[in-house]
Design a protein that fits this description.
- With 141 residues, the chain is α+β, with helices and mostly antiparallel strands.
- The protein is built from 1 helix and 8 strands; from the N terminus they run H-E-E-E-E-E-E-E-E.
- A hairpin with a 3-residue loop joins strand 7 and strand 8.
């Protein structure tokens, strides 16, 4: 019974040590500028895009497993292959700008290892196109 107990304790300690070293070696993403972008005023029906850039400062490759937008009006495109330590990855967000008014949208980016999540934010205001006044209206008959 003592041997089984000692073996169990040894196994638990070993598993804990490996888990801690894996956590220590986990990736660390450093974002080039920020995790938010303000488009300012953009014209209605003119999609607006911004590319977020990050560097893998960890010791293991990082893979983006999913980029989940907060609504269907935002489309993320991202680096599909694993990002090696010291290399850069990109996440391009495109907002469709169909509806006039202020917007505040997010894209949640999930990475492995560690199932880490980062929230990217895009904001701005969609303004209606001004009426085309260059064409004179036909005079009523």
């Amino acid at each position: 019974m003592k041997k089984i107990f000692l073996l169990l304790i040894t196994f638990t300690f070993t598993a804990y040590s490996f888990a801690q070293s894996a956590k220590t070696n986990a990736s660390t993403l450093t974002w080039s500028k920020d995790t938010s972008h303000d488009f300012g005023k953009i014209q209605q029906n003119q999609p607006a895009s911004f590319t977020f850039e990050f560097t893998n400062n960890g010791t293991v490759p990082v893979t983006i497993t999913k980029a989940q937008p907060s609504c269907s009006c935002t489309v993320p495109e991202y680096t599909k292959e694993p990002i090696l330590p010291g290399k850069k990855g990109l996440i391009k967000t495109t907002y469709n700008a169909h509806t006039a008014g202020m917007f505040n949208k997010t894209v949640t980016v999930y990475t492995e290892p560690g199932n880490e999540a980062t929230i990217l934010k895009i904001t701005g205001e969609v303004v209606q196109k001004p009426a085309d006044v260059s064409k004179p209206e036909a005079a009523p008959k």
